[in-house]
Amino acid sequence: MSYLVLARKWRPQRFSEVVGQEIIIKTLSRALSSGRIAHAFLFTGSRGVGKTTLARLLAKAFTCEKSISPEPCGTCTHCESIGSGQSADIIEIDGASNTGVDDVRALREQIRYLPVSARFKIFIIDEVHMLSTNAFNALLKTLEEPPEHVKFIFATTEAHKIPVTILSRCQRYDFKRIKVSVIIDRLKVVLAEENIQVDPEALLLIAQNADGGMRDALSLLDQVISFSGNNASLQDVIDILGLIDRRIVSRITQAILEGNSKQVLEFVEEVSNLGYDTKQLLDEIGLEIRNLCLSAATGSIAGLADLTEERVQAINELAAQHELLDLQRLLDISLKASNQLSASEHPRFVLELALLKMVERPKLHQISEIQKAIQKLESMGQGTSATIITKTEPVSKNTWKHFVSAMASSMPMISHHLEHGRYNGKGKVEFDQKLHFSRIQAAAQSKDFQEHCKQHLGLVPEVTLSESIHVAQQTVIKQEQQSIEEKARNNPAVKQALSVLGGEIKAVRKA
Ligand SMILES: Nc1ncnc2c1ncn2[C@@H]1O[C@H](COP(=O)(O)OP(=O)(O)O)[C@@H](O)[C@H]1O
Ligand SMILES: [Mg+2]
Ligand SMILES: [Zn+2]
After folding, report:
1. Which of 239, 258, 423, 486 could form a disulfide bond with 400, CB atoms 3.0-4.6 angstroms apart?
2. Cα 47 to averaged position of ligand 1 atoms, centre (Å)
3. Which of 5, 10, 11 most suits a substitution to test ligand 1, by most atoms within 8 Å of the C-beta?
4. What domains, with CATH codes, occur in the chain?
5. Over the chain (511 residues), what is each successive 10-residue block's mean pLDDT?
6. Does ligand 1 come within 6 angstroms of the Cβ of 60?
Protein backbone atom coordinates (compact mmCIF):
# COMPACT_ATOMS: atom_id res chain seq x y z
CA MET A 1 0.00 0.00 0.00
CA SER A 2 1.39 3.39 -0.94
CA TYR A 3 2.00 5.87 1.82
CA LEU A 4 -0.66 8.53 2.15
CA VAL A 5 0.60 11.77 3.66
CA LEU A 6 -0.96 12.50 7.02
CA ALA A 7 -2.57 15.76 5.89
CA ARG A 8 -4.60 13.89 3.25
CA LYS A 9 -5.20 10.77 5.23
CA TRP A 10 -6.54 12.83 8.10
CA ARG A 11 -8.87 15.13 6.22
CA PRO A 12 -11.95 15.35 8.46
CA GLN A 13 -14.89 13.35 7.11
CA ARG A 14 -17.49 14.94 9.33
CA PHE A 15 -18.12 18.41 10.74
CA SER A 16 -17.27 17.32 14.28
CA GLU A 17 -13.74 16.40 13.25
CA VAL A 18 -12.94 19.90 12.00
CA VAL A 19 -11.16 21.73 14.80
CA GLY A 20 -10.68 25.39 15.59
CA GLN A 21 -13.49 26.75 13.39
CA GLU A 22 -16.37 26.42 15.83
CA ILE A 23 -18.31 29.53 14.84
CA ILE A 24 -18.27 28.61 11.16
CA ILE A 25 -19.39 25.05 11.84
CA LYS A 26 -22.16 26.28 14.11
CA THR A 27 -23.44 28.79 11.57
CA LEU A 28 -23.32 26.32 8.70
CA SER A 29 -24.98 23.59 10.76
CA ARG A 30 -27.77 25.93 11.77
CA ALA A 31 -28.36 26.98 8.17
CA LEU A 32 -28.38 23.34 7.03
CA SER A 33 -30.89 22.27 9.69
CA SER A 34 -33.16 25.24 9.08
CA GLY A 35 -33.09 24.79 5.32
CA ARG A 36 -32.39 28.47 4.73
CA ILE A 37 -29.33 28.01 2.60
CA ALA A 38 -27.50 30.53 0.46
CA HIS A 39 -26.50 29.58 -3.05
CA ALA A 40 -22.99 31.00 -2.91
CA PHE A 41 -20.44 30.70 -0.12
CA LEU A 42 -17.02 32.25 0.20
CA PHE A 43 -14.46 30.61 2.48
CA THR A 44 -11.46 32.81 3.23
CA GLY A 45 -8.44 32.33 5.45
CA SER A 46 -4.79 31.32 5.45
CA ARG A 47 -3.69 27.99 4.03
CA GLY A 48 -4.33 24.69 5.70
CA VAL A 49 -7.05 25.80 8.08
CA GLY A 50 -9.90 23.74 6.65
CA LYS A 51 -11.43 25.66 3.72
CA THR A 52 -11.35 22.84 1.16
CA THR A 53 -12.22 20.33 3.84
CA LEU A 54 -15.35 22.23 4.84
CA ALA A 55 -16.27 22.94 1.21
CA ARG A 56 -16.38 19.19 0.58
CA LEU A 57 -18.24 18.51 3.80
CA LEU A 58 -20.78 21.16 2.88
CA ALA A 59 -21.18 19.57 -0.55
CA LYS A 60 -21.80 16.27 1.18
CA ALA A 61 -24.39 17.86 3.44
CA PHE A 62 -26.18 19.30 0.37
CA THR A 63 -26.27 16.07 -1.55
CA CYS A 64 -26.61 13.27 1.01
CA GLU A 65 -29.47 11.01 -0.07
CA LYS A 66 -30.92 10.91 3.43
CA SER A 67 -31.54 14.65 3.70
CA ILE A 68 -29.88 18.05 3.69
CA SER A 69 -28.36 18.07 7.13
CA PRO A 70 -25.24 18.90 9.14
CA GLU A 71 -24.83 15.15 9.70
CA PRO A 72 -24.54 13.59 6.24
CA CYS A 73 -24.75 9.80 6.46
CA GLY A 74 -21.33 9.20 4.91
CA THR A 75 -22.45 5.90 3.39
CA CYS A 76 -24.88 6.72 0.59
CA THR A 77 -23.57 6.82 -2.98
CA HIS A 78 -23.28 10.60 -2.97
CA CYS A 79 -21.48 10.80 0.36
CA GLU A 80 -19.11 8.06 -0.79
CA SER A 81 -18.43 9.57 -4.19
CA ILE A 82 -17.51 12.89 -2.60
CA GLY A 83 -15.18 11.15 -0.19
CA SER A 84 -13.33 9.60 -3.10
CA GLY A 85 -13.59 12.71 -5.29
CA GLN A 86 -15.63 10.96 -7.99
CA SER A 87 -18.99 12.64 -7.85
CA ALA A 88 -20.27 13.79 -11.25
CA ASP A 89 -22.22 16.62 -9.65
CA ILE A 90 -19.51 18.06 -7.46
CA ILE A 91 -17.19 19.98 -9.70
CA GLU A 92 -13.93 21.12 -8.20
CA ILE A 93 -12.16 23.81 -10.15
CA ASP A 94 -8.71 25.16 -9.46
CA GLY A 95 -8.95 28.89 -10.03
CA ALA A 96 -5.22 29.09 -10.60
CA SER A 97 -5.21 26.84 -13.66
CA ASN A 98 -8.63 27.48 -15.19
CA THR A 99 -8.53 31.04 -16.36
CA GLY A 100 -8.68 30.76 -20.15
CA VAL A 101 -11.57 31.66 -22.41
CA ASP A 102 -12.31 27.99 -23.08
CA ASP A 103 -12.48 27.28 -19.39
CA VAL A 104 -15.02 30.04 -18.92
CA ARG A 105 -17.13 28.69 -21.76
CA ALA A 106 -16.96 25.19 -20.30
CA LEU A 107 -17.95 26.51 -16.93
CA ARG A 108 -20.99 28.29 -18.37
CA GLU A 109 -22.05 25.13 -20.18
CA GLN A 110 -21.73 23.07 -17.06
CA ILE A 111 -23.75 25.46 -14.97
CA ARG A 112 -26.60 25.16 -17.45
CA TYR A 113 -26.89 21.36 -17.18
CA LEU A 114 -29.00 19.83 -14.47
CA PRO A 115 -27.30 17.60 -11.92
CA VAL A 116 -26.75 14.01 -13.02
CA SER A 117 -28.06 12.34 -9.92
CA ALA A 118 -27.58 14.57 -6.88
CA ARG A 119 -29.90 17.22 -5.49
CA PHE A 120 -27.60 20.03 -6.63
CA LYS A 121 -24.75 20.69 -8.97
CA ILE A 122 -22.05 22.06 -6.73
CA PHE A 123 -19.08 24.08 -7.93
CA ILE A 124 -16.16 24.28 -5.57
CA ILE A 125 -13.75 26.87 -6.92
CA ASP A 126 -10.45 26.95 -5.08
CA GLU A 127 -8.13 29.96 -5.22
CA VAL A 128 -11.04 31.81 -6.79
CA HIS A 129 -9.14 35.11 -6.72
CA MET A 130 -6.98 33.78 -9.59
CA LEU A 131 -9.85 33.71 -12.08
CA SER A 132 -9.65 36.07 -15.06
CA THR A 133 -12.00 39.02 -15.47
CA ASN A 134 -13.81 37.03 -18.15
CA ALA A 135 -14.35 34.17 -15.81
CA PHE A 136 -15.60 36.46 -13.07
CA ASN A 137 -18.05 38.07 -15.49
CA ALA A 138 -19.37 34.67 -16.48
CA LEU A 139 -19.77 33.79 -12.82
CA LEU A 140 -21.43 37.06 -12.01
CA LYS A 141 -24.25 36.44 -14.50
CA THR A 142 -25.01 33.16 -12.80
CA LEU A 143 -24.72 34.63 -9.33
CA GLU A 144 -27.20 37.37 -10.21
CA GLU A 145 -29.84 34.88 -11.26
CA PRO A 146 -28.79 31.58 -9.81
CA PRO A 147 -30.51 28.48 -11.16
CA GLU A 148 -32.21 26.48 -8.38
CA HIS A 149 -30.01 23.46 -8.97
CA VAL A 150 -26.63 25.21 -8.56
CA LYS A 151 -24.52 25.97 -5.48
CA PHE A 152 -21.15 27.69 -5.42
CA ILE A 153 -18.48 27.32 -2.79
CA PHE A 154 -15.51 29.60 -3.35
CA ALA A 155 -12.30 29.37 -1.37
CA THR A 156 -9.44 31.82 -1.28
CA THR A 157 -6.46 32.93 0.74
CA GLU A 158 -6.80 36.42 -0.71
CA ALA A 159 -10.33 37.72 -0.39
CA HIS A 160 -9.28 41.29 -1.18
CA LYS A 161 -8.53 40.25 -4.76
CA ILE A 162 -12.11 39.25 -5.45
CA PRO A 163 -14.34 41.81 -7.20
CA VAL A 164 -16.89 43.44 -4.91
CA THR A 165 -19.67 42.46 -7.31
CA ILE A 166 -18.88 38.82 -6.56
CA LEU A 167 -18.24 39.33 -2.84
CA SER A 168 -21.59 41.01 -2.33
CA ARG A 169 -23.40 37.97 -3.69
CA CYS A 170 -21.74 35.45 -1.40
CA GLN A 171 -22.18 34.44 2.19
CA ARG A 172 -18.72 34.96 3.61
CA TYR A 173 -16.93 32.83 6.22
CA ASP A 174 -13.56 33.90 7.61
CA PHE A 175 -11.49 30.95 8.80
CA LYS A 176 -9.21 31.46 11.77
CA ARG A 177 -5.66 30.31 12.34
CA ILE A 178 -5.82 27.37 14.68
CA LYS A 179 -4.51 27.73 18.25
CA VAL A 180 -1.33 25.90 19.21
CA SER A 181 -3.09 23.91 21.93
CA VAL A 182 -5.83 22.88 19.50
CA ILE A 183 -3.26 21.77 16.93
CA ILE A 184 -1.45 19.73 19.57
CA ASP A 185 -4.67 18.00 20.59
CA ARG A 186 -5.43 17.09 16.98
CA LEU A 187 -1.86 15.84 16.40
CA LYS A 188 -2.21 13.65 19.48
CA VAL A 189 -5.35 12.06 18.05
CA VAL A 190 -3.53 11.34 14.78
CA LEU A 191 -0.45 9.97 16.53
CA ALA A 192 -2.47 7.69 18.78
CA GLU A 193 -4.27 6.22 15.77
CA GLU A 194 -1.03 5.87 13.84
CA ASN A 195 0.70 4.34 16.83
CA ILE A 196 3.58 6.76 16.75
CA GLN A 197 5.37 8.25 19.74
CA VAL A 198 6.48 11.85 19.59
CA ASP A 199 8.03 13.68 22.51
CA PRO A 200 5.52 16.28 23.87
CA GLU A 201 8.20 18.99 23.60
CA ALA A 202 8.68 18.04 19.96
CA LEU A 203 4.94 18.27 19.35
CA LEU A 204 4.89 21.71 20.91
CA LEU A 205 7.74 22.82 18.69
CA ILE A 206 5.93 21.53 15.61
CA ALA A 207 2.62 23.10 16.56
CA GLN A 208 4.23 26.46 17.31
CA ASN A 209 5.97 26.49 13.98
CA ALA A 210 2.85 25.61 11.99
CA ASP A 211 1.62 29.19 12.38
CA GLY A 212 -1.95 28.15 12.95
CA GLY A 213 -2.15 25.88 9.92
CA MET A 214 -3.20 22.27 10.50
CA ARG A 215 -1.86 21.16 7.15
CA ASP A 216 1.56 22.62 7.95
CA ALA A 217 1.53 20.93 11.34
CA LEU A 218 0.71 17.56 9.78
CA SER A 219 3.32 18.01 7.05
CA LEU A 220 6.00 18.86 9.60
CA LEU A 221 5.01 15.79 11.56
CA ASP A 222 5.22 13.73 8.38
CA GLN A 223 8.77 14.85 7.72
CA VAL A 224 9.86 14.05 11.24
CA ILE A 225 8.28 10.61 11.18
CA SER A 226 9.74 9.71 7.81
CA PHE A 227 13.24 10.36 9.20
CA SER A 228 13.03 9.22 12.76
CA GLY A 229 10.48 6.44 12.53
CA ASN A 230 7.90 5.76 15.16
CA ASN A 231 9.69 7.49 18.00
CA ALA A 232 10.64 11.11 17.52
CA SER A 233 12.49 13.22 20.05
CA LEU A 234 12.82 16.96 20.43
CA GLN A 235 16.35 16.84 19.03
CA ASP A 236 15.04 14.97 15.97
CA VAL A 237 12.64 17.82 15.29
CA ILE A 238 15.37 20.40 15.74
CA ASP A 239 17.75 18.48 13.47
CA ILE A 240 15.29 17.53 10.77
CA LEU A 241 13.24 20.69 10.53
CA GLY A 242 15.77 23.24 11.72
CA LEU A 243 13.15 24.59 14.10
CA ILE A 244 14.45 26.67 16.95
CA ASP A 245 13.88 25.48 20.47
CA ARG A 246 11.99 28.29 22.14
CA ARG A 247 13.68 27.60 25.45
CA ILE A 248 17.05 28.64 24.06
CA VAL A 249 15.41 31.83 22.83
CA SER A 250 14.00 32.39 26.32
CA ARG A 251 17.40 31.80 27.90
CA ILE A 252 19.09 34.29 25.58
CA THR A 253 16.38 36.86 26.26
CA GLN A 254 16.78 36.36 30.01
CA ALA A 255 20.53 36.80 29.77
CA ILE A 256 19.99 40.03 27.80
CA LEU A 257 17.60 41.35 30.43
CA GLU A 258 20.05 40.43 33.19
CA GLY A 259 22.83 42.20 31.34
CA ASN A 260 24.98 39.10 31.10
CA SER A 261 26.88 39.54 27.86
CA LYS A 262 29.18 36.58 28.39
CA GLN A 263 26.26 34.22 28.71
CA VAL A 264 24.50 35.73 25.70
CA LEU A 265 27.54 35.07 23.51
CA GLU A 266 27.91 31.56 24.87
CA PHE A 267 24.30 30.79 23.96
CA VAL A 268 24.83 32.16 20.46
CA GLU A 269 27.81 29.85 20.08
CA GLU A 270 25.75 26.90 21.31
CA VAL A 271 22.91 27.74 18.95
CA SER A 272 25.09 28.14 15.90
CA ASN A 273 26.73 24.81 16.65
CA LEU A 274 23.28 23.28 16.43
CA GLY A 275 23.06 24.70 12.93
CA TYR A 276 20.40 27.29 13.49
CA ASP A 277 19.77 30.10 11.05
CA THR A 278 21.03 33.45 12.31
CA LYS A 279 18.10 35.52 11.08
CA GLN A 280 15.61 33.02 12.38
CA LEU A 281 17.23 33.20 15.79
CA LEU A 282 17.19 36.99 15.88
CA ASP A 283 13.57 37.06 14.76
CA GLU A 284 12.61 34.57 17.45
CA ILE A 285 14.32 36.73 20.07
CA GLY A 286 12.48 39.75 18.65
CA LEU A 287 9.20 37.86 18.90
CA GLU A 288 9.91 36.94 22.51
CA ILE A 289 10.65 40.57 23.37
CA ARG A 290 7.53 41.71 21.53
CA ASN A 291 5.49 39.32 23.66
CA LEU A 292 7.14 40.73 26.78
CA CYS A 293 6.25 44.24 25.59
CA LEU A 294 2.61 43.29 25.07
CA SER A 295 2.49 41.74 28.50
CA ALA A 296 4.22 44.69 30.18
CA ALA A 297 1.86 47.11 28.45
CA THR A 298 -1.36 45.30 29.28
CA GLY A 299 -0.59 43.17 32.32
CA SER A 300 -0.97 39.85 30.54
CA ILE A 301 -0.17 38.39 27.15
CA ALA A 302 -3.15 36.00 27.42
CA GLY A 303 -5.47 36.49 24.48
CA LEU A 304 -2.99 38.69 22.62
CA ALA A 305 -0.81 35.95 21.20
CA ASP A 306 -1.27 32.32 20.39
CA LEU A 307 0.77 30.73 23.12
CA THR A 308 0.58 27.74 25.39
CA GLU A 309 -0.56 28.43 28.94
CA GLU A 310 2.91 27.72 30.27
CA ARG A 311 4.46 30.32 28.03
CA VAL A 312 1.79 32.88 28.84
CA GLN A 313 2.66 32.48 32.49
CA ALA A 314 6.41 32.57 31.96
CA ILE A 315 6.17 35.68 29.80
CA ASN A 316 3.87 37.49 32.21
CA GLU A 317 6.19 36.75 35.13
CA LEU A 318 9.26 37.96 33.28
CA ALA A 319 7.53 41.04 31.89
CA ALA A 320 6.37 42.07 35.36
CA GLN A 321 10.02 42.46 36.37
CA HIS A 322 10.83 44.94 33.62
CA GLU A 323 9.83 48.38 32.49
CA LEU A 324 7.86 48.68 29.26
CA LEU A 325 10.21 51.40 28.05
CA ASP A 326 13.19 49.15 28.57
CA LEU A 327 11.56 46.32 26.64
CA GLN A 328 10.58 48.68 23.85
CA ARG A 329 14.21 49.70 23.45
CA LEU A 330 15.20 46.05 23.11
CA LEU A 331 12.52 45.48 20.51
CA ASP A 332 13.68 48.49 18.59
CA ILE A 333 17.28 47.23 18.48
CA SER A 334 16.22 43.76 17.39
CA LEU A 335 13.98 45.06 14.59
CA LYS A 336 16.69 47.30 13.20
CA ALA A 337 19.23 44.49 13.34
CA SER A 338 16.83 42.09 11.66
CA ASN A 339 16.58 44.45 8.69
CA GLN A 340 20.34 44.83 8.49
CA LEU A 341 20.92 41.15 8.78
CA SER A 342 19.18 40.23 5.54
CA ALA A 343 21.55 42.45 3.59
CA SER A 344 24.71 41.61 5.47
CA GLU A 345 27.49 39.25 4.41
CA HIS A 346 28.34 38.67 8.06
CA PRO A 347 25.05 37.78 9.71
CA ARG A 348 26.72 36.32 12.78
CA PHE A 349 28.50 39.62 13.47
CA VAL A 350 25.30 41.60 13.03
CA LEU A 351 23.55 39.24 15.43
CA GLU A 352 26.27 39.47 18.06
CA LEU A 353 26.51 43.23 17.78
CA ALA A 354 22.76 43.57 18.15
CA LEU A 355 22.69 41.31 21.20
CA LEU A 356 25.55 43.20 22.81
CA LYS A 357 23.77 46.48 22.13
CA MET A 358 20.76 45.04 23.86
CA VAL A 359 22.82 43.97 26.86
CA GLU A 360 24.57 47.33 27.08
CA ARG A 361 21.48 49.47 26.56
CA PRO A 362 21.29 52.49 28.88
CA LYS A 363 20.02 51.29 32.20
CA LEU A 364 16.61 52.31 33.39
CA HIS A 365 15.62 52.03 36.99
CA GLN A 366 12.24 50.75 37.90
CA ILE A 367 10.09 53.53 39.26
CA SER A 368 8.85 51.15 41.94
CA GLU A 369 12.42 50.57 43.14
CA ILE A 370 13.08 54.27 43.32
CA GLN A 371 9.89 54.85 45.26
CA LYS A 372 10.83 52.14 47.71
CA ALA A 373 14.26 53.64 48.22
CA ILE A 374 12.79 57.08 48.78
CA GLN A 375 10.29 55.73 51.29
CA LYS A 376 13.08 54.06 53.18
CA LEU A 377 15.07 57.27 53.22
CA GLU A 378 12.10 59.19 54.52
CA SER A 379 11.46 56.70 57.25
CA MET A 380 14.93 57.01 58.70
CA GLY A 381 14.10 60.50 59.98
CA GLN A 382 16.24 61.12 63.11
CA GLY A 383 16.63 64.85 62.46
CA THR A 384 19.00 64.27 59.59
CA SER A 385 17.85 64.31 56.04
CA ALA A 386 20.10 63.71 53.13
CA THR A 387 19.46 65.26 49.77
CA ILE A 388 20.75 62.92 47.18
CA ILE A 389 21.26 64.60 43.88
CA THR A 390 21.38 61.97 41.23
CA LYS A 391 23.02 62.38 37.88
CA THR A 392 19.78 63.61 36.39
CA GLU A 393 19.14 67.00 37.88
CA PRO A 394 15.79 67.79 39.47
CA VAL A 395 13.31 69.65 37.33
CA SER A 396 13.28 72.73 39.60
CA LYS A 397 17.01 73.13 39.20
CA ASN A 398 16.71 72.91 35.42
CA THR A 399 13.88 75.41 35.32
CA TRP A 400 15.92 77.88 37.31
CA LYS A 401 18.98 77.32 35.11
CA HIS A 402 16.94 78.08 32.00
CA PHE A 403 15.52 81.15 33.64
CA VAL A 404 18.97 82.43 34.63
CA SER A 405 20.39 81.92 31.17
CA ALA A 406 17.40 83.60 29.56
CA MET A 407 17.86 86.56 31.91
CA ALA A 408 21.54 86.83 30.93
CA SER A 409 20.45 88.44 27.67
CA SER A 410 17.33 90.30 28.78
CA MET A 411 18.50 91.64 32.18
CA PRO A 412 22.31 91.22 32.18
CA MET A 413 22.82 93.49 35.21
CA ILE A 414 21.19 91.11 37.63
CA SER A 415 21.69 87.69 36.03
CA HIS A 416 24.99 87.20 37.86
CA HIS A 417 23.18 87.51 41.17
CA LEU A 418 20.47 85.14 40.11
CA GLU A 419 23.08 82.43 39.67
CA HIS A 420 23.48 82.28 43.43
CA GLY A 421 19.83 81.52 44.08
CA ARG A 422 18.37 78.11 44.89
CA TYR A 423 14.90 77.61 43.47
CA ASN A 424 12.66 75.06 45.15
CA GLY A 425 10.38 74.71 42.13
CA LYS A 426 7.41 75.91 44.15
CA GLY A 427 7.66 79.67 44.14
CA LYS A 428 10.53 80.24 46.56
CA VAL A 429 14.10 81.21 45.77
CA GLU A 430 16.70 81.29 48.53
CA PHE A 431 20.02 83.12 48.76
CA ASP A 432 22.86 82.50 51.19
CA GLN A 433 24.58 85.85 50.72
CA LYS A 434 22.99 89.17 51.53
CA LEU A 435 24.50 90.98 48.55
CA HIS A 436 22.80 88.74 45.99
CA PHE A 437 19.63 88.58 48.01
CA SER A 438 19.19 92.36 48.23
CA ARG A 439 19.92 92.97 44.56
CA ILE A 440 17.35 90.42 43.47
CA GLN A 441 14.85 91.57 46.08
CA ALA A 442 15.12 95.06 44.63
CA ALA A 443 14.88 93.83 41.06
CA ALA A 444 11.82 91.79 41.93
CA GLN A 445 9.88 95.03 42.38
CA SER A 446 10.18 95.86 38.69
CA LYS A 447 7.41 94.99 36.25
CA ASP A 448 9.98 93.85 33.73
CA PHE A 449 11.50 91.29 36.10
CA GLN A 450 8.07 90.04 37.13
CA GLU A 451 7.09 89.51 33.50
CA HIS A 452 10.19 87.43 32.86
CA CYS A 453 9.49 85.34 35.94
CA LYS A 454 5.93 84.61 34.88
CA GLN A 455 7.10 83.64 31.43
CA HIS A 456 9.78 81.20 32.59
CA LEU A 457 8.65 80.05 36.02
CA GLY A 458 4.92 80.58 35.73
CA LEU A 459 4.95 82.89 38.77
CA VAL A 460 6.91 85.55 40.61
CA PRO A 461 8.88 83.72 43.29
CA GLU A 462 9.30 84.88 46.85
CA VAL A 463 12.91 86.00 47.39
CA THR A 464 14.33 84.82 50.71
CA LEU A 465 17.59 84.91 52.58
CA SER A 466 18.77 81.85 54.45
CA GLU A 467 19.52 82.54 58.10
CA SER A 468 22.48 84.93 58.24
CA ILE A 469 25.74 83.26 58.76
CA HIS A 470 28.53 84.63 60.88
CA VAL A 471 32.09 83.75 60.19
CA ALA A 472 32.58 82.33 63.66
CA GLN A 473 29.61 80.08 63.36
CA GLN A 474 30.76 78.86 59.99
CA THR A 475 33.60 76.75 61.37
CA VAL A 476 31.30 75.01 63.81
CA ILE A 477 28.76 74.42 61.11
CA LYS A 478 31.43 73.05 58.81
CA GLN A 479 32.49 70.50 61.42
CA GLU A 480 28.94 69.57 62.09
CA GLN A 481 28.33 69.26 58.38
CA GLN A 482 31.26 66.89 57.99
CA SER A 483 30.01 64.59 60.70
CA ILE A 484 26.51 64.62 59.20
CA GLU A 485 27.97 63.77 55.81
CA GLU A 486 29.93 60.95 57.33
CA LYS A 487 26.81 59.64 59.02
CA ALA A 488 24.74 59.95 55.87
CA ARG A 489 27.29 58.16 53.74
CA ASN A 490 27.45 55.24 56.11
CA ASN A 491 23.73 54.98 56.53
CA PRO A 492 22.54 51.64 55.05
CA ALA A 493 19.40 53.21 53.55
CA VAL A 494 21.48 55.84 51.80
CA LYS A 495 23.89 53.21 50.55
CA GLN A 496 21.04 51.19 49.15
CA ALA A 497 19.47 54.23 47.54
CA LEU A 498 22.76 55.08 45.90
CA SER A 499 23.17 51.61 44.48
CA VAL A 500 19.61 51.60 43.16
CA LEU A 501 19.68 55.11 41.76
CA GLY A 502 23.26 54.92 40.56
CA GLY A 503 23.89 58.51 41.61
CA GLU A 504 26.33 60.18 43.93
CA ILE A 505 26.00 62.31 47.03
CA LYS A 506 26.52 65.94 46.08
CA ALA A 507 25.20 67.63 49.14
CA VAL A 508 24.07 66.71 52.63
CA ARG A 509 22.00 69.34 54.33
CA LYS A 510 20.77 69.64 57.82
CA ALA A 511 17.03 69.63 58.00
N1 LIG B 1 -9.74 22.83 10.91
C2 LIG B 1 -9.16 21.65 10.66
N3 LIG B 1 -9.41 20.58 11.45
C4 LIG B 1 -8.80 19.41 11.23
N5 LIG B 1 -7.92 19.20 10.22
C6 LIG B 1 -7.63 20.23 9.40
C7 LIG B 1 -8.25 21.50 9.59
N8 LIG B 1 -7.78 22.33 8.65
C9 LIG B 1 -6.92 21.63 7.91
N10 LIG B 1 -6.82 20.36 8.35
C11 LIG B 1 -5.90 19.32 7.81
O12 LIG B 1 -5.14 19.93 6.77
C13 LIG B 1 -5.45 19.35 5.52
C14 LIG B 1 -5.64 20.46 4.49
O15 LIG B 1 -6.74 21.25 4.84
P16 LIG B 1 -7.58 22.07 3.77
O17 LIG B 1 -8.98 22.05 4.21
O18 LIG B 1 -7.29 21.57 2.40
O19 LIG B 1 -6.94 23.49 3.96
P20 LIG B 1 -7.22 24.83 3.13
O21 LIG B 1 -7.75 25.79 4.13
O22 LIG B 1 -5.88 25.26 2.62
O23 LIG B 1 -8.18 24.52 2.03
C24 LIG B 1 -6.71 18.56 5.74
O25 LIG B 1 -6.69 17.42 4.92
C26 LIG B 1 -6.62 18.16 7.19
O27 LIG B 1 -5.81 17.04 7.35
MG1 LIG C 1 -7.69 24.41 -0.02
ZN1 LIG D 1 -25.18 10.37 2.61
Report:
1. 423
2. 8
3. 11
4. 6-174 (3.40.50.300), 180-241 (1.10.8.60), 246-359 (1.20.272.10), 371-510 (no CATH)
5. 79 94 96 91 94 95 92 89 82 81 78 89 93 84 89 94 93 92 96 94 88 93 89 86 80 93 90 80 92 93 73 90 92 93 88 92 65 72 48 66 84 84 87 83 88 88 74 57 75 75 69 55
6. no
